[in-house]
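Following up on my earlier thread - several people asked me to post the actual chain instead of describing it. Fair enough. Here it is, all 136 residues.
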Amino acid sequence: MNLPEIPDGTNVMGVGIDQIEVTRIRESLDKHGDHFLKKIFSPKEQSYCMDKSDPAPYLAARFAAKEAAAKAFGTGFGPSFGWLDSEINHGKFGEPIIRFNKRAQGLLDRKSANHALVSLTHLESIASAIVLLISK
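Reply from S.P.:
Thanks for posting it. Predicted structure:
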């Protein structure tokens, strides 16, 4: 896959977007339970989502954010970036914040970025996320 060139002088160093059908996450949760949750989501993400009356849309949005981050890094999922290398937290106003572990922080450095922005959205049937890697 050829990624588009990012113009010189911009502070956007990478971008990724993803969407997923909520039913896929619901089915994985029903079929694989804790194994699925522990493989994809941090304990903090699990706690936040499973506290909702219907956790599937919230899990799906976080799943999409992790996919979007993998695309923004240009790595996909594999030896250099895995499901648990990123975590969606919340800021003081409830806004989503993406945090990276040490390994993913190295990818951020290699992209000449020092910050990531994330936006999540979900409906009953679809969840989407976008991740921007920026240099401040």
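Strands lie at 12-21, 86-90, 96-100, 115-122, 126-134. That should answer part of your original question.
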